[in-house]
Fold this sequence. Notes:
By secondary structure, the protein is an alpha/beta fold. Helix 1 links the parallel strand 1 (5-9) and strand 2. Helix 2 (62-69) crosses helix 3 (90-107) and helix 5 (163-169) packs across helix 7 (220-230). 32% of the residues lie in helices and 16% in strands. The strands form 4 sheets. It has a 7-stranded parallel β-sheet, sandwiched between helices. A two-stranded parallel sheet has the order 7-10. A two-stranded parallel ribbon has the order 8-13. It has helices at residues 14-24, 62-69, 90-107, 128-143, 163-169, 189-199, 220-230, 245-252, 262-267, 291-294; strands spanning 5-9, 29-34, 52-56, 74-77, 112-116, 148-152, 155-156, 174-177, 183-184, 187-188, 209-212, 218-219, 236-239. The chain has a domain at 5-157 and 185-212: 3-Layer(aba) Sandwich (Rossmann fold).
Amino acid sequence: xxxxxxxxxxxxxxxxxxxxxxxxxxxxxxxxxxxxxxxxxxxxxxxxxxxxxxxxxxxxxxxxxxxxxxxxxxxxxxxxxxxxxxxxxxxxxxxxxxxxxxxxxxxxxxxxxxxxxxxxxxxxxxxxxxxxxxxxxxxxxxxxxxxxxxxxxxxxxxxxxxxxxxxxxxxxxxxxxxxxxxxxxxxxxxxxxxxxxxxxxxxxxxxxxxxxxxxxxxxxxxxxxxxxxxxxxxxxxxxxxxxxxxxxxxxxxxxxxxxxxxxxxxxxxxxxxxxxxxxxxxxxxxxxxxxxxxxxxxxxxxxxxxxxxxxxx
Length: 313
């Protein structure tokens, strides 16, 4: 893989930073394309001097996407949003933005394209997130038929936005639980990155879709309880009835960084687990990393006495 140039859109986020770190060890040159380069400087020390370049690119601006892709051997698109804000709309990012990356990659002769989507995408879904992701997949495969599509369930790891939030919230005396019975199959960020790195040089993965889930399936309530346990907290988990949940979530969604939105509540109406007939980690001979093995390595920061709290697990 040495001497290859890999452009990663969204390469400074949670998954992107881990991917850059793993890719840098293979010797490839890496171009990290982000909207705000100043916020991505933390990725440059992950490789050798000059190995990692940070450039400005916005999926809503074709000229910047073209400049970022120019000269690349491979492109990985990790860009996604959990809620809409300003000009960052689901269709603009997940559908039109994904199509722009795929089309320009094809035009410029990129050999390999890896596109990160999500389990549960569906054009008929009541959730706009799932709709836009599904339409994005369709646009990507039309523009770049050999693209590899990666659909993970919720991803966990040291900088994740889910279990960290659960553990932090567990310091409250009462925690509301919305759609607590919905099932998830959390997958470790390191395992997701392994699949992406392999896809860059495995021609057998081209044109295929992989659904990535971890070793075990948990309900949303169980995931919240696991995070609270690791934080050594004992909040009272209160199930919010379905008939009043939308009213409560509407007001939570007005916050600048909402804990849950109405669209996410719609997503919770369907389980987020690997389909029975889907290709996944086992097809790539990757053993999934256990959630219980990783959570203690980073959620100890939320314990009353930090990492030095007595281990009772």
